[in-house]
């Protein structure tokens, strides 16, 4: 029960203090899960993020679920998911009750505008720290693919599907070479 509560509370704090969506949660998840709690090794976290991005749903919730599952199977997944979702749910519910009356307030508007640069920084931070675990070739490929998506307006889903196919073929070729 203590471990369940620990997972719930860790992700509740992350959900409570993160603004800007799922990508903004990643540096906090990384700090809590890898550095503070040591639940997942650095290299596994990159794989976990890749998996979380590849399946349907918000990346932060998927990351929380996969982390919780790795720690305590289904109970851990549920604890992590509830911890990550409840703060947003409670905050959005509270805001919805009186947002219309304060939206035109210049202080509220300025606060939202002031948060934008911080959200961008929160999104860029994990990209930089996660790139340390990648080789130069992988970084170059990632930058080229990002450029293709941006300039040619290619679908990221298409890029992910092609990447998954290439990865499967690559691994099968390596396994085949190892077999006598």
Automatic annotation (TrEMBL):
* Main location class: membrane
Bilayer topology term? Multi-pass membrane protein
Show the GO MF annotations: chromate transmembrane transporter activity
- Spans through the membrane: 6-29, 78-102, 158-175
Is Cytoplasm given among the entry's keywords? no
A GO term from the CC aspect: plasma membrane
InterPro entries (alphabetical): CHR_Transporter, Chromate_transpt
Where is the protein situated, by its record's location annotation?
Cell membrane
Q: Which UniProt keywords apply?
A: Cell membrane, Membrane, Transmembrane, Transmembrane helix
Instruction: Give the family per the record.
Output: Belongs to the chromate ion transporter (CHR) (TC 2.A.51) family.
Quote the protein name from its UniProt record.
Chromate transporter
Q: Which organism is it from?
A: Candidatus Alistipes avicola
Q: What is the lineage of its organism?
A: Bacteria, Pseudomonadati, Bacteroidota, Bacteroidia, Bacteroidales
């Amino acid at each position: 029960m203590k471990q369940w509560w620990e997972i719930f509370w860790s992700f509740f704090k992350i959900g409570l203090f993160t603004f800007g969506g799922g990508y903004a949660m990643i540096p906090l998840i990384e700090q809590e899960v890898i550095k503070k709690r040591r639940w997942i090794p650095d290299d596994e976290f990159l794989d976990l993020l890749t998996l979380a991005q590849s399946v349907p749903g918000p990346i932060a919730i998927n990351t929380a679920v996969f982390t919780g599952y790795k720690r305590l199977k289904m109970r851990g997944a549920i604890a992590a998911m509830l911890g990550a979702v409840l703060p947003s749910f409670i905050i959005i519910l509270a805001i919805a009750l009186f947002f219309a009356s304060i939206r035109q307030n210049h202080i509220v508007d300025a606060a939202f505008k002031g948060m934008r640069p911080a959200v961008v920084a929160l999104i860029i931070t994990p990209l930089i720290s996660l790139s340390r675990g990648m080789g130069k070739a992988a970084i170059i490929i990632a930058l080229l693919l990002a450029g293709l998506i941006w300039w040619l307006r290619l679908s990221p889903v298409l890029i992910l599907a092609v990447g998954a196919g290439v990865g499967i073929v690559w691994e099968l070729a390596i396994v085949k070479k190892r077999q006598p």
